[in-house]
Automatic annotation (TrEMBL):
<dbReference type="InterPro" id="IPR036278">
    <property type="entry name" value="Sialidase_sf"/>
</dbReference>
<protein>
    <submittedName>
        <fullName>Uncharacterized protein</fullName>
    </submittedName>
</protein>
Amino acid sequence: MVAEPDWPATEIGGEAHHNAFTDLLEYKGYVYCSFREGSGHVPGSNGVGKILRTRDGRVWEAFTILQKKGIDLRDQKLSVMPDGRMLCLMGGSVYDTTQKPSKLLGMYPQVAFMGAGMQFTAPEKAVIENAGNNWIWRLTWYKGAGYGIDYGNGTTIWLVKTTDGITFKKIAALDIGGAPNESTIRFDAGGKMYILVRREQGDKMGVLATGIAPFTNFGYHKLDYRLGGPDFIFSPDGRKLLIGTRLYLPAGAKTGILVTDLNGKQIKKLILESGGDCSYPGLLIKNKQLWVSYYSSHTGKAAVYFTKIPLEHLLQ
């Protein structure tokens, strides 16, 4: 049995063979959607970062493309720095393409900045304390600092911190087993840090970690569902989490929105029009709606989709 979608969406990005790994950000009158254009989930050729923008969510225009020779740019994540510039944080994979399939040689996060001129700088390599293979998946800014999770070594994830968007210091290792990786950080109104963590070994159930400043000790709450490419934000009243993630259903993968309590317990589930290789949503609240970007391959190839969901539909 195929799980029918509860909510439709519109394709906004499908020019490349594989269009994936999205994010959303509102900035100076526009909403920006970033994603990767490539030849496949893992490349035969290196991917580039594409950014679209819209004023109303109906008409989207191409804004820019970020690329760097010899680097597969992935997981483009957007944020606004304390000085007002937009930052695009990207994973940077280097492959030996002479081997089939391509062999991953290293992972080096890349950053690009956009200021008053409304043009991005060229991507440059981030400077990370005790660097090795690094992957900082998303940045969230709080009180002048950006926080993210580095999961590059495959076994331990680290909370990292930056004040300039390019130099990162390791703050604390998180005590989470099961191959933790893609993680999103948010802060509640009181400054408590919430970290939603995907796991890919053991029971593979997600984890919600929480901690308070100086963010060196955390509590952990095991969820009863898997995560894939997770993003989340708080409901306007701060009492619920709105989680965008891959849903691992008996009929196959879908992209969905979960409404949960502050411990991640599910209250409501909404399946978006999606299937196959999918997920990696971006979320924001605008005009009493949840705006959602994500990618899906339910029509035959991986393309980027967008939808708006009234908050009253999710939270009633």
